[in-house]
Amino acid sequence: MKTVREKPHRLKRIRYQGLVSVAFTVCLEQRAPLFLRADTVDLFVEYLKCACEEANVHAVYCFMPEHVHTISIGQSDGSDALRWIENFKHMTGWWLKTHRPNIRWQKGFWDRITRSTHEEAHCAWYLVNNPVRRGLVETWDDYPFTGSIGFDLKEYLTDLLPFT
Question: How many domains does the structure of the chain reveal?
Fold first, then answer.
């Protein structure tokens, strides 16, 4: 197996704070297919909700079988998207360790801070269409493991359509 060299996170923490939108992708090691059943995904969505409350963010999510796409949307100057994803990984990492010890999150994550509504629209539509590209469903809203926390997802996407 190829060794992956760890590197520190590339941006300062302050960049993730406030009224910012950040797209994150978090993967399971060895591409372990964990998110196949509604009861598992529902549990992880509850952890996302807890992390949202603690970090004062709203979120969009899509649980693919072996990874999770999310967008964190800051709600105030005190919002903290980086703390949000770190808390989510910490809480769910503990659950994995105690309930599925053979499955772990990969270290780190992929992220993208959106600098415009156009970028946010691109990330949001990419996120919801991931199951379509993978051939799991015909349309994004047929996929049961896509949703939002804090707002109506269909309304959000409709508002972003002019920017796509």
Answer: 1
